[in-house]
Amino acid sequence: MNPTNKITGKSWTGLLGTTRKMRILSASALFLAVCAFGAAGVAPLAPDASDLPVKSIAQDLELPNLADQIAALQQKPQQFIHEEKVRSGDSLASLLSRLGVDDQDAARFIKSDRVAKGVMQLKTGKRVQAKTDQDGQMQWLRATVVDAQDNPVKTISITRKDDKFVAQETAPKLERRVEMRARTITNSLYSATDANTDGGKLPDTIVAQIIEMFSTSIDFRSDLKRGDHFNVVYETFWQDGEMVRTGRILAGEFVNRGVTYQSVWFEDPLSKAGGGYYTLDGKALKKAFLKSPLEFSRISSGFSMRSHPISGSWKAHKGIDFAAALGTPIRASGDGVIEFKGVSGGYGNMVVIKHWAKYSTAYAHMSRFPQGLRKGSKISQGDIIGYVGSTGWSTGAHLHYEFRVNNEARDPNALAVIVQAPLTSAELARFKNSATDMTHRFALLRPGIKTTTLASR
């Protein structure tokens, strides 16, 4: 038989399958296929966009009358705001002239009013703003007074009220910003900090803080190597769009010879303890006490038995004497609270600071105290608490310094190094939130840099 006939001669039910279930499934699939082809055949085709009719519409629009607007503006009183910087040799008249002020009443008021006179003592380079009307009559004038370190102290505002002027002093309003910088050592630390690779050089005060922060781990004179890099997050304070001062470093990371050193500033808002720098796992970096309360001095008498210079008796000297010139600033050796300030017999003018736990320090024979220092004042390490003198039982200008444990004088040089007070469990939990934020900032500052070994603490 012809092979073709063998195939065509079979029934359609045989082609659909041998069992009833297979025939039902095959028939359903065939039906769906026929429906799909039918839908495709009858579906309308979308028209070609180029064949669509195009209709143009033209309409005249009425333009506004600019002459009327200009006339209306000219009828309103015009006011102008000027800003100038104080120049060397400036007089009040020359400064007001550059500010567009032509107002004799304003000039007389500034010269005669106690507060307004501060404008005449502004430093060269400081900014002054003034608002005037179209005739040069002054509406207000503002200027900021700074101290010897160029930090804003107060803002002087002079305002016209009817035909009179009112001057007042207010605390300067500063905007706090957080800035981040990343640098790589190619020559020296200072050449890296002076580079403008990311839009600006690092302020000198921040560079000094970097050195102080990492100097216990890195010798910046001999340890730096080409390729070392560091990241720093710090505060800046701005007024009217101008940076007026820098704040403290909030976090720092320094990679030296493949070893990473990190620190984060933390000051717990809920406790009275002073702030300090910590590793990312919450260990204090700062030593609790300075080695010396004076920056530049020498030890003239140590913690030992000696012949008293006045009585001549042989007795224990329960402190360390630092020889220094009269008036040398005395620094608090650690964070704490003023427990005593005043005259104490042979100690003369004396300050006692209560530190955390069982520690306290005493400073004697001072010539004077700084203004505002009183019992109960909160003190941070390095704050000026007095000046070297020769009051009490003293034969010459020096500082008598005592380190006390449970109110008993001890030789600070014989004690093991004391680190800053550890964080409590509650403080540690709050610290971790701050540390996490700084860790993210570090990650942004070092894209593509391989992870290095963390310094062990």
TrEMBL record:
Signal peptide: none annotated. Keywords: Hydrolase, Metal-binding, Metalloprotease, Protease, Zinc. GO terms for biological process: proteolysis. Residues 316-412 form the M23ase beta-sheet core domain. It comes from the Bacteria. Its cofactor is Zn(2+). GO terms for molecular function: metal ion binding; metalloendopeptidase activity. Gene3D superfamilies: 3.10.450.350, Glucose Permease (Domain IIA). Pfam families: NMB0315_dom_I, Peptidase_M23. Residues 81-138 form the DD-carboxypeptidase/endopeptidase Mpg-like N-terminal domain. This is Peptidase M23.
